[in-house]
Amino acid sequence: AQSVTQLGSHVSVSEGALVLLRCNYSSSVPPYLFWYVQYPNQGLQLLLKYTSAATLVKGINGFEAEFKKSETSFHLTKPSAHMSDAAEYFCAVAGGTSYGKLTFGQGTILTVHP
Amino acid sequence: EAQVTQNPRYLITVTGKKLTVTCSQNMNHEYMSWYRQDPGLGLRQIYYSMNVEVTDKGDVPEGYKVSRKEKRNFPLILESPSPNQTSLYFCASSITDSNQPQHFGDGTRLSIL
Lengths: 114, 113
Prior knowledge:
By secondary structure, chain A is mostly beta strands.
């Protein structure tokens, strides 16, 4: 069975500081990995996805994530936080024996201070 | 505009009164899925559908039913709602399966008293 663990339910950074949101996954097959962002009172939007083409994946709004198979990690980073990055972020894994299942992590709320 | 539309957006109801949350997508996607979001638990998959008349259980299917009679629609049915089904529900679709990025609706907040 696949699973996702996001380390840290809340992360707080200052504007302009590095953003690092951690995600570790478990999958019995090569995974498809996603980061989604949820702004208040909205649905989820795709930030980026990993599909084995390249280990460093660039997404929207300056975010990127690096797939590290040896560490089973897919951490999300952004060099310089902006106030508009404040939201909840979800890591998700697909690609198990069923092509239908998608498993999300618990979510990380990012707060950005002026 | 490509979108996933859920209705209603908000609903307060009582235990045992059957309800249906509708979901419709206009992108001709084969795959559709339902999730519930609860604080500290992230999103958990309820049911998914790979195509018309093809549905399967996710991780938390108990107390829910779905149907996929048309490609664009994937309603979620709570035949006898209970308070533990109070949650925020999301419908999503993708072009083929869960390996592809999903488009999410804006959510339906259900309160079961």
